[in-house]
């Protein structure tokens, strides 16, 4: 049985001398793996369309395990991502994180569109760090470890002046911050953005401008939260951190 899907290449592994095994995150069927025979050959019609981050239409033969890719055509060129090492590093982190957070063959149009717009905005020059924080906040939902960003985690009071407790898993108001002596002090803007990034509709994202000190606070909160609760080790994140160390 032949299936056609709109998808994005999120993983690619060489197989033998001339083949590739690629993982697609598709709009219709979720995450699926397919064999692309001959895709490593320079003159193969599948060579360019099986590159990482390719967004296109894919025709493949259905299988209980690994399907076989028959045809593919590019839907949205993402040339800036593929030619810029910084953008490539962010895109690699996005797709690896998504891969770790999703199950095989579990369809979700919402997740597909979120990935699609994340890569399109990255390609168009939207702030890479802002996109990263949004992506990370959204993936926490898929992992089932989302932080509490609606009021104080302890007493529920709604305020704008919060600290963030990794231990308690969310915002703490000034009165409740004594619960956790290691609470992270954050600005009102950081608290607001953590909540906005958690709920934002990616389709409606504009050109967001965030001060560096706010980015530093967002990075500290989100990275520490992932380290505490996710159990994930991503090579792409390590490489991204390495790039930013220069």
From TrEMBL:
GO cellular component: bacterial nucleoid
Gene3D superfamilies tied to this protein: Nucleic acid-binding proteins (2.40.50.140), Recombination protein O, C-terminal domain (1.20.1440.120)
Protein family according to the UniProt entry: Belongs to the RecO family.
Organism this protein belongs to: Lottiidibacillus patelloidae
Described function: Involved in DNA repair and RecF pathway recombination.
SUPFAM superfamilies found in the cross-reference section: ArfGap/RecO-like zinc finger, Nucleic acid-binding proteins
Example of a GO biological process term: DNA recombination
Segments forming domain DNA replication/recombination mediator RecO N-terminal: 1-76
Protein name (record): DNA repair protein RecO
Matching HAMAP family: RecO (MF_00201)
One Pfam assignment: RecO_N
Keywords of this entry: DNA damage, DNA recombination, DNA repair
InterPro entries xref list: ARFGAP/RecO, DNA_rep/recomb_RecO_N, NA-bd_OB-fold, RecO, RecO_C
